[in-house]
Structures are given as structure tokens and as C-alpha cells.
Amino acid sequence: MFGRSRIETKTPEQILRMRKAGLVVGQTLQLMAQTVRPGISTKQLDELAEEHIRGCGAVPSFLGYHGFTGSLCTSVNDEVVHGIPGPRVLNEGDLISIDCGAIVDGWHGDAAISVVVGGRSAARPEDLELIDATEDSMWAGIAALAVGEPLYAVGAAVEDSVVTASERDGRTYGIVEDYVGHGIGTEMHQDPQVPNYAVRDKGPTVRSGVTVAIEPMVTLGSAETRVLQDDWTVVTVDGSRAAHWENTVAVTDGGLWVLTALDGGQERLEAAGAAYAPLG
């Protein structure tokens, strides 16, 4: 299913350029998290995001990508990923996943967050647990990245984290297998693909200078999905809610730098026992 291609690596200078794009993405998602509220439409969020991205001297990665019409993907409740911004008005208690990409000087950053409209106090307990389980699994996958290690250790770490959360929360979480992480650089999607679940194959060996986007998608029920008639929006077949978290990460001999995290991922990496190694 997954190729054994060698992973393209970047120079320290190129990674620093990717960090510029990553910061635009991280700042845009922070703005979205602060702006999400009952009564706002996904189109309004999208317009604000595009304005912010362009104001930073960047270009939205998603807008026009294979005909996509938004600068964000806004996926609500049972929508897993690739939701198209539009007139839909958000209600208190909705779970929205927001995926954002930006390009600076030809280099991409890509990340996603999941939040509850109205804040955590407005959320169903199961939605908070799902969001936290998904975010934790992303960080577990990121922490599994290391020079000399197999790339597909990421998926095994994601799955282990989700299984642990399922046992802790007493819930059945599904890991979506149809959509996976990916290499990233001068294109938003590059080889290799990075599964979010354990596979037999170890995959290519991680080398210094590798940059990948790690993005688990987890559901509150079955992991089976389908695509709506718009040819973009992916929803759960059983109608269960889904969460999506993503970060773009650079791997160096010294450790990891999360290019789309405003703090570089330092706190979460160190908590996971992984080395934090910013280049500048």
C-alpha cells in the first residue's frame, strides 16, 4: 500500500524557510480558535483566514488546489476532513476541525486543530475526550520520529496512543485509514505517505532533514468514511463525530522541530521524552 521511496531531505536553510510558512499556519489556526463562536459561518472563518495569511506575505496552500474553493478545510461534527467553507453557521457545541496550509517563498506549512464551538464548557464530554485523544496521538506519532528509525513507527505510536485512550475513556475510537500523513516541502503533498496506524512494513528510514506532516483523524465510532457529492467532504458512515490534528515537523540529528507549532513543540516534545531542536 505504501511505497518504499527514500524521503526527500531539506537543508537547514530550507527548514528555516519552511518555519516561516509554518508560523503563518500556526498563527492563523490560533486566530481561528479565538474566532470560532456560535453564529459565525465557515465562510466567514475562511475569509478571515485568507486575509490573515495574505497579510503575512503568504499564499493559501488550499485555495485552488485541484479546484478547492477555500483557504481552510472546515469539517464539522461527522465531517472528518476536506470540508468546504460555505454558508453553514456554527452552533454551540459543534465540533469543528480546521485544516490550514500556507506558502512562503515556495515552501509549505500544513496543520490542523479541532475545537468545540463555544469552548470546552459547551462541549459534550465525549467530544472533549475525542479531541484530546486525537491530539495526544498526534504528539505520540511526532515523538516517534528520529534519525535512523523507521518512518512507520509513527503509525504504531499513533495507534498505541489511541488504544490507550480508548481503554482509559471507555470509548470505541476509530482511526481513519483512508487519509494519511505525508512528506511536505516545495509541494504540500510529497512522498512518502505516513500511515496513522500500525503496518507490517517498517517504511523508509528517517534521515536528518526530513520534513513530514503527521495528521491522525479519529472518530467516536466506526472509522469507515465516504465522500459527499461535492467530491471533497469526507464524513463518517455511521454519523459519529471526528477530530483531526496535524503538524508539520522537521527531523534533525539534534531532534525535532515542529514547524507549525508556535513554540516549536517544545513543551509537548519534552513531555514525551523527545529532543527539541530548533535551528534558529
Rg, alpha carbons: 17 Å
Element string (H = helix, E = strand) = HHEEEEEHHEEEEEEEEEEH
Low-confidence stretches: none
Give the structural class.
alpha+beta
Shape: globular
Beta fraction of the residues?
A: 15-25%
- Main sheet record: 5 strands, antiparallel
Total strands: the figure is: 15
> Widest sheet: strand order?
8-7-9-14-15
Distance between the termini: 37 Å
Figure out the total of helices: 5
What share of residues is helical? 25-40%
Mean pLDDT: 96
Please give a structural write-up:
- This protein has 280 residues and is of the alpha+beta class.
- Helix content is 29%, strand content 24%.
- It has five helices and 15 strands.
- It has helices at 12-35, 42-55, 125-143, 153-169, 266-271, and strands spanning 59-60, 72-76, 79-81, 95-104, 107-116, 174-175, 181-183, 190-194, 210-214, 217-219, 225-227, 234-236, 242-244, 247-252, 255-258.
- The chain has a five-stranded antiparallel sheet, covered by helices on one side.
- Strand 11 (225-227) and strand 12 (234-236) form a beta hairpin.
- Helix 1 packs antiparallel against helix 2 (42-55) and helix 3 (125-143) runs antiparallel to helix 4 (153-169).
- The longest helix is centred in the N-terminal third of the chain and has 24 residues, at 12-35.
- The chain is globular, with a radius of gyration of 17 Å.
- The mean pLDDT is 96.
Short descriptors:
alpha+beta; 280 residues; single chain; 15 strands; 5 helices; five-stranded antiparallel beta sheet; four-stranded antiparallel beta sheet
